[in-house]
Protein: HAF repeat-containing protein
Organism: Trinickia fusca
Amino acid sequence: MTVFAVLAAAASQPAIGQSLTINDLGTLPGGRDSFATGINSRGQVVGYSSYSAPAAGVIPFSPPHNRIFHAFLFEKGVMTDLGALPGGNYSEALAINERGQVVGFSRTNTVGPGHAFFYDQGVMTDLGTLPGGTYSQATAINNRGQVVGSADPAGGGQHAFLFDNGVMADLGTLPGGNNSDATGINNRGQVVGLSTIVAGPPLTNHAFSNENGVMSDLGTLPGGTYSQAFATNNKGQVVGLADTASGAQHAFLYQQGQMTDLGTLPGGSFSAAYGINERGDIVGVSESASGYSHAFLFSDGVMTDLGTLPGGTYSEALGINGSGQVVGDGNDSHTVSSSTHAVLWTK
């Protein structure tokens, strides 16, 4: 059966996204904005939240006020501040595995670029950098405790890394490239991300999969020149975004050697897929007919708009677990005084 036939047949099935309810997770005490980035099967949510208010009239994310965030763990209705590495004042939690181990990055002083961290049982550990480097960021972790992300090597630039058994290994780049970033890893140890394929300028990025030390180019959508992968599941299905022949960027699903365009919400021109679970349910963000971007769930061939917080205009979904719980963030209004909160969509 063709991909079109599969999608057409599935279109008549009810989308599970229609039964999901959005829940505002709030912020850390004193904070205004929060973002949820990952969820495991136990319903533990991670992300980052402001923990003190910026000065009156100051845009929360403009320097130096973007230093007010701390990583959090949300469990059983309580958001816990995970703090920062010693000397640091900023951290973000970006992923969690089934064991409740959390990874992300934290500054190690008040102005530095930061280091990847591993958080387990109340202890945040600095994972260091590649030899000669000064920066690292962890973006994903599997159930074996293998961590991936990006770091600067001694020669400059940015390279994907795999941290395993206490060692941070440089995964290099696709042939001809000089920069890469690892954004996802499954329990098989398959790593996905993006890499330049020419030294540039201009830079040209392609999604990659790295398995058993071999980095493979996943290519692009037909007629496109750019792609990047964000997540993979244990079946080896990969999701991300790529440009189309028209230049628009669309969410994609890569499986069995083929990259499929997932399209957009009705009326939209842009979409990106950020997470996928073992059932193949995909979440991300898409422009909607309103002109604002909304979180979506793509399940059984149907892309469903997950909506926004009451009064809000924007939302995005970044992670989904096996139970179909989805996490991300959304704003509460389209005004200068609006705030963005971590959200959880549940049945």
Notes: The chain has one helix and 28 strands.
